[in-house]
Amino acid sequence: MKYIDSHSLSPFFNLAIEEHVLKKFSLDEDFIFLWQNTPTIVVGSNQNTVEEINLKFVRDNNINVVRRMSGGGAVYQDLGNLNFTFLAQVSETSRIDMKKYACPIAHALRDMGVPAEVSGRNDITVNGKKISGNAQRLYQNKILHHGTLLFDSDLNILEKALKVNIDKIQSKGIKSIRSRVTNISDYLVQKIDMQAFKNILLKYLFKGEEPIQYHLTEEDLEEVNRLVKDKYATWDWNYSKSPNYSLFNSSRFSGGKIECYLDVKNGIIKNSKIYGDFLSINDIADIEKEINGKKYGRKALTDALSKFNLFHYFGDISMEEILSVFFG
């Protein structure tokens, strides 16, 4: 395994590094990437950005907003948060296990005296409070698994910057964003700073051996900067627009929320957009393209969806649950 360190605090640059390594490296050996951002909201690949953020607060406080490649929900990050990314080869047809990558992080935290455990569909928690959210993206035979670690973040800013839908809060029986999250530093017996925390985590992941660092080449940096300019720093990628639609429905399931916008004319789906915090590892645009042009009917959409491994697109949301959103 090799280690990538980023000296940049730009979320646009760091997310571009992830995509570059995933798509351009053979990953004959595993990589781990640790990185931090200046105050930023990172939204999931399938989310409607303006519905996830407190836009006025974000603008007034110069908080970056950027979309990532993976599914799941929006997260707030600042210099009190450490991001981790695993990149590795996998069998494309295998059922990707979120716990394979989240568990070593939880084990490392427990070694530091933090009673962390992998919980729910994609979280690491301490005493029922979230300290880490995880998500994944599959590309060819390679997986990107990344997550956040709330080490010493400003939870007051986090609470004000994110706009969490009431159905998500009610589904978990909790009263506020603040009550759902906590900082790792609050549970450490011996107080350490972020750099020391990062070093301990690396030592654990490399099983006590000296981490082997990969230094991005000039060619790597050229490609990363191109991705920043053409994708991650653009309004189109980070905000995008909902289609004009004649039908809309949304539902929350144990596997996440789906919002479905359909423009239906003369019984034919002309345009579609699917949003949500479901844990997709493939691009939901594949599903949207497939159903565009199909009859708006249960059989036609069932046939269209049956062409896909739905776990890769909607996580643990079933075919029947997906169809219930399309048809109410």
CATH architecture of the largest domain: 2-Layer Sandwich
Query: Which structural class is indicated by helix and strand composition?
Result: alpha+beta
Order of helices and strands: EHEEHHEEEHEEEEHHHHHEEEHHHH
Low-confidence stretches: none
Instruction: Please give the largest β-sheet.
Output: 7 strands, mixed
Strand content: 25-35%
Q: What's the CATH class label of the largest domain?
A: Alpha Beta
Written description of the protein model:
This protein is globular. The protein folds into two domains: 237 residues, Bira Bifunctional Protein, Domain 2 (BirA Bifunctional Protein, domain 2, 2-Layer Sandwich); 81 residues, CO dehydrogenase flavoprotein, C-terminal domain (Enolase-like, domain 1), CATH 3.30.390. By secondary structure, it is α+β, with helices and mostly antiparallel strands. The chain has a seven-stranded mixed beta sheet with strand order 1-2-6-10-9-8-7. A three-stranded mixed beta sheet has the order 4-3-5, covered by helices on one side. α1 packs across α8 and α4 crosses α7. The chain contains 13 helices and 13 strands. β1, α1 and β2 form a beta-alpha-beta unit. Helices cover 34% and strands 25% of the residues. The mean pLDDT is 92.
